[in-house]
Write a structure and sequence with these properties.
It is a single chain. The chain is α+β, with helices and mostly antiparallel strands. It has 1 helix and 3 strands. The longest helix has 16 residues. It is elongated, with a radius of gyration of 24 Å.
């Protein structure tokens, strides 16, 4: 892991087209801005983890398909 120190209005570059800016430092919170192409998905870690868990659950579930009738006649119960 690379660890860097930055001050307000300083940036970190990732590759040629992603920058992370320090917007504000207040107590133990840091506000950052991420400038990236629209094709790059940027998530907070907890949101990323939730999406990953949902995707895993969907992949492991058994699909449920409604019963298809196609006009067949059934005997009444």
């Amino acid at each position: 892991m690379l660890i860097l120190s930055r001050k307000i209005n300083e940036k970190i570059m990732i590759g040629d087209d992603i920058s992370i800016s320090i917007i504000e430092i207040r107590g133990d919170q840091v506000r950052i801005g991420v400038d990236a192409p629209r094709t790059v998905k940027v998530f907070r870690q907890e949101v990323f983890d939730a999406i990953r868990a949902e995707n895993r659950a969907a992949a492991e579930s058994t699909p449920v398909f409604p019963e298809f009738d196609f006009g067949a006649k059934r005997d009444p119960l």
